[in-house]
Specification:
Helices cover 16% and strands 24% of the residues. The protein has 5 helices and 14 strands.
């Protein structure tokens, strides 16, 4: 069993590197979400340019601009690589409008599984409200590790049942921004109790002023709940082995 490297790319974005395959998750590397009035301005620099990344796959959990980055999608899924975009139906439509070749997109909806020789990924529901009704999270099995990327989802006491059950989670990637339907610090900590992962990595904070999110507060709630999960708070661009 090999080590798998996880690199936090800011926001909800990650790179998963097994040594043989590189999977991007919800990468936002541009400033394309910024509105003319300055809202949703990027507050932290992207840790890498999209042209420098050699992806095999890019998974986008839903069509919102900080998860499907129209400012960099055609530099990530580009003519000189074989990267495939894996995403649900509404995201596929948005990607096609952004100019992504249809032949490079794999539609990946709730309940579906995508499998290669290197990994298996199962799409599960993410409750992101009426604004993104087909948003997904996913369970990624790679090199004997189970990674649950929650996606943008509100706090639900029945989330484990809502996603159709889940085996032992090695790594939980959990949003903590507490806005736009996502769990806040305490709710994210309660998900630690629900899924009992070996490792938890908070994400979806510090990207926009409007996002919110406080990793220190999250750590405080985790300490109060006194569970055995190891919480790793990564710097933007930092990698960790799991």
């Amino acid at each position: 069993m090999n080590d798998v490297s996880l690199r936090w790319m800011g926001g909800a974005g990650f790179l998963v590197d097994t040594g043989s395959v590189i999977i991007g998750i919800d990468l936002y590397l541009s400033n394309s979400c910024m509105a003319p009035d300055g809202k949703y301005k990027r507050m932290t620099p992207a840790p890498a340019g999209p042209e420098s990344l050699k992806l095999d796959y890019l998974v986008a959990s839903h069509e919102h601009g900080d998860h499907l980055d129209t400012g960099s999608i055609n530099k990530l899924v580009r003519a000189d690589n074989n990267a495939l975009l894996i995403c649900p139906a509404a995201t596929r439509a948005a990607a096609e409008l952004a100019g992504v070749d249809r032949g490079r997109i794999v539609e990946f909806n709730r309940g579906q599984t995508f499998e290669t020789d290197s990994f298996c990924i199962r799409a599960v529901p993410a409750d992101h409200g009426d604004d993104s009704p087909d948003a997904i999270g996913f369970v990624l099995k790679v090199d004997g590790k189970v990674i649950y990327f929650m996606g943008d989802t509100c706090y639900r006491a029945d989330l484990r049942q809502y996603i159709g059950g889940c085996e032992q989670v090695d790594v939980l990637l959990v949003p903590i921004n507490g806005k736009f339907g996502n769990p806040g610090s305490r709710e994210a900590a309660l998900y630690m109790e629900m899924f009992k992962p070996k490792i938890a990595i908070p994400c979806h904070f510090w990207l926009f002023v409007e996002h919110g999110g406080d990793p220190g507060e999250f750590l405080g709630y985790c300490e109060e709940l006194e569970f055995s999960t190891e919480v790793r708070v990564l710097a933007i661009g930092e990698s960790t082995c799991i």
